[in-house]
Amino acid sequence: MHDHRKLGRELDLFDTDPLMGAGLPYWLPDGAIVRHTLEEYVREAERAAGYRHVYSPVLGKRDLYEISGHWDHYREDMFPPMDLGAEQVVLRPSLCPHHALIYRSRSHSYRELPLRIAELGGMYRAELSGVLGGLTRVRAIQLNDAHIFCTLEQAVEEARAALALIARAYADLGIRASRYRLSLPGEGGKYVADPRLWRRATALLREVLDSSGIDGSGIEYEAAEGEAAFYGPKIDVQITDPAGRESTLSTVQIDFHQPERFDLHYIGPDGAKHRPVMVHRSVIGSVERAVAHLLEEHGGAFPTWLAPVQLVVLPIAQAQEERAHEVVRRAVARGLRAEVSGPGDGTLGARVRAARLVPYQAVIGDREADAGLAAVRLRDGRRPGAVPVAELLERIAARAADRGAELWPAA
């Protein structure tokens, strides 16, 4: 069983410092590579699915969150307001109010809908120190968030497409969903008091779940009271860590509340104003939680495309070091992440063990250096033998491009 906190420190991915504060991890270079690669993957997947990316500030006036309902229903989880002259500003606990304002800043026709707005943005939650841990519970969160503004008739299909996007990402990342949950309000919670909107949103989400899945026959799910957002029900995609602890990674929500609070509208084919539906969705949730789960799921042995170092080149002796650096230069030119581990780093056996989580190792001795070859060792223990350097780099680049799990598939 793997603990991402222990692995993160052993692999120099992330750490914390008391002077920065609890729940505020910093990312070291190799961890930053994993995070950047994951973020770029999500952006690429979203662009291909028709999303347009924006940036919005991590601060907002208190008035903004009073309109959205966060101040009334979510205040305990927010950082205290900061006084700026006669105004108060707050570190945002969510991106959706900002995206509502971005939508509201321009007039929209029904012809533009669905309008899909996405952002990998920071948000902040005042978690109590007793629940903070590693990357799974933090106070500064980088959220993969998006909001789709659409007509009522488009809402089910947009939510269904969001679930399909989540499924594709899980396949590429090697993540398994343990279950799907329809999260509903519970007794005593601080929820928006509008039963009509709750019933409409819940009915649409049930339709989404009942018509999704590979063959369209529906996704098995469980309804859970007390797990809804304060403004509406949601579909939660649950994951389970190696210790059996369950958490939510991805969500899809249909929201009628915030379009009303922010007076959002579009011009319909009849020339009149109509209220859009707001579909919230997050493919990988917070980057922090996603990386924590990937660390534990793969034990630090990330898929080739996500690995901080994809190829380590091991010259047997100092005489082959220049050839090893040439191989690394060629690999970097191909867009791969490669480095040399030379004799100064220890015996060949020690260097091989130190690079045990790197997908590919290329050993270069006199024979390989003279012939332009590399003796290949794979992370899974296989040794395909000596191959031309160009072939090795082509194979690694192909695995990184197609995000395949197999390190050395048969030709």
Please tag this protein with its features.
about 400 residues, 8-stranded mixed beta sheet, alpha+beta, 13 helices
Written overview of the protein:
This protein has 411 residues and is of the alpha+beta class. It is 35% helix and 24% strand. The chain has helices at residues 4-10, 29-48, 62-68, 70-73, 96-104, 152-173, 195-210, 257-261, 287-298, 321-333, 348-354, 366-371, 389-402; strands at 14-15, 26-27, 52-53, 59-61, 82-84, 87-91, 115-124, 140-150, 179-184, 221-225, 234-240, 246-255, 266-267, 273-274, 277-282, 311-315, 338-340, 360-364, 373-378, 385-388. The strands form 5 sheets. The protein has an 8-stranded mixed β-sheet with strand order 3-7-8-15-12-11-9-10, with helices on both faces. α1 (4-10) crosses α9 and α6 packs across α7 (195-210). The longest helix has 22 residues, at 152-173. The radius of gyration is 24 Å and the shape is elongated. The model has no long low-confidence stretch (mean pLDDT 92).
Shape: elongated
Report the portion of residues in β strands. Answer: 15-25%
Radius of gyration, whole Å: 24 Å
- Provide the spatial order of strands within the biggest beta sheet: 3-7-8-15-12-11-9-10
Question: Largest sheet at a glance?
Answer: 8 strands, mixed
Please, how many helices? Answer: 13
Amount of helix:
25-40%
Number of E-state strands: 20
- Classify the secondary structure makeup into a structural class: alpha+beta
Low-pLDDT stretches are: none
Query: Mean pLDDT, rounded to whole units?
Result: 92
End-to-end distance? 34 Å
